[in-house]
Amino acid sequence: MSAGMAVQCVGAILIQAGTLLLGRRASHLRSYPNCWDIIGGHVEVGETFEQTLVREVAEEIGVTPIDFAKLTSLQFADGLDGAGELHIYRVDAWTGGAPRIRDDEHAELGWFTVEAACALPNLASIQYVHVFRAIGTTRKNSSPAIAGGH
After folding, report:
1. Backbone angles phi, psi at 133, to 5 degrees
2. In-domain check, residue 22
3. What span, in angstroms and rounded, lies between the C-alpha atoms of 121 and 72?
4. What is the residue-level pLDDT of the chain in tens, covering all 150 positions?
5. Second label for 53, Cα 20 to 30 Å away, from 69, 71, 91, 126?
6. How far apart are CA 48 and CA 51, in angstroms?
7. What is the domain extent for residue 36?
8. Into how many domains does the chain fold?
9. Tell me, what's the pLDDT at 96?
10. What is the CATH number of the domain that holds 111?
């Protein structure tokens, strides 16, 4: 993990039939209420990013990633967590059937084409647009070029 006090988070973008899975965050949440976000959360002490990915996806949507690759890391700052780093993974295969809401973090899940995801007015981060577009231009097992992460 990075040095310093930066909060470390991991996010997953599940990909199926050319669409991306996003979750609309619940209205009661302090961070990004009612915003469409990728699935994920905070790294716990002693966890690797990959362990966090598997744990968070299982907790939030009930599936276990089995084929995934890191796409990029984004810097973020919000009034609640302070400075942070979000490590984003694409997930191309999982076990456990269809993703479904398993906790109170999300109000709904939705599959979006890259362009539809980029056009959502209430994305948790505008930086996601670059990540989504990079996914749309790359094939599995190749690294997208994300210039600067912004």
Report:
1. -65, -35
2. yes
3. 23
4. 444 568 999 999 999 999 999 999 999 998 899 999 999 999 999 999 999 999 999 999 999 999 999 999 999 876 665 789 999 999 999 999 999 999 999 999 999 999 999 999 999 999 999 999 999 766 555 444 333 333
5. 126
6. 5
7. 7-136
8. 1
9. 97
10. 3.90.79.10
Q: Which two tokens stand for residue 32?
A: 């990004």
Looking at the domain assignment, is residue 149 inside a domain? no
Q: Cα dist. 81→44, 65, 77, 117, 119 in Å?
A: 14, 26, 7, 25, 26
130 φ/ψ angles, rounded to the nearest 5 degrees: -65, -40
- Residues comprising the chain, all counted: 150
